[in-house]
Amino acid sequence: SMQLARGEAIKRNGIVVLCVSDDGDECTGGGGWEEGWIVLDPNDRVLKQHQELASGLVLFELSSVSELSFDPSGVGSTSATFKLCQQAPSPGIEEKRISLTVTGRTRVETIKTGCP
Q1: How close are the terminal C-alpha atoms of the chain, in Å?
Q2: Tens digits of per-residue pLDDT, 102-116?
């Protein structure tokens, strides 16, 4: 979703937003990313909707942001770091860290540090 939002900002030559959304229609401004998220085009139309995470998956937002935006050059408004953990059937089976730099680049890596 981060890569999609960045690419759409460049393609549409406008600001594209990725934000927490519990209803799939608008940014909720609160809550957690595990509730779901959406990508909005420069006219606030939903380009992509991601439902609540499946049972057994937990997404920790380690940077305390509920909205990310990308300008027409693809640069992000802020850096962010997420940790995706599989809690069932066994904790720690699959852990990923998703990082977004202020330049808009994303990186996904497998980690073994344990989940908060």
Answers
A1: 23
A2: 888 999 998 877 666
